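User: Sequence in, structure out. Go.
Assistant: Echoing your sequence, followed by the structure tokens.
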Amino acid sequence: MSQALEQRTYTREEYLEFETASEERHEYINGEIRLMTGGTPDHNEIAINLATLLKSALRGKPYRIFGADQRLWIPGGGASPKGNRNLYTYPDLMVVEKPLQLQTGRTDTVTNPCFIAEVLSKSTQDYDHGEKFSAYRTIESFREYLLIDQYQIHVEHYIKTAANQWLLSEYDDPNVTLSLSAFEAQIEIIALYENIEIDA
């Protein structure tokens, strides 16, 4: 059962106390606490497919893979019309290069992903493309972003090529293999969508 939230500005400490006791996941955006909605079966299947593929590709390499229950902290996470963001969020999938870096004073919040993937939902796709990606780009270690459409075969792949420069590649062909550069892994698009029924 979820706790009721007052409509007010919360400190980071208040959010973390609330979140630790909550059975649901919430984002913290510049003092506001937002409930994160659950994903569809296809959303979850795609995320698991990607995690499985990466787990195999990165076995024995100095990386750790985290799913949607792992909290990420982004201090001052990006410019927006409302000013800089302080953001706690839960990406669908993160890859973190060892050694794992945690927020000071916390044992449950990472700060150094090199790769983040989000499976797009109708309710979150604008946020994942815009404000959230802007926040992610402020993370020094972050250099690769994957956005996966759950309703059609379409993957957007962003690679950081230089300071403030990102290269976008898009994939609609299920027979294409995508090359990840952050840790030299190959991902077959068709494998991402395994068990997903896509309308022609």
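User: And one key feature?
Assistant: The mean pLDDT is 90.
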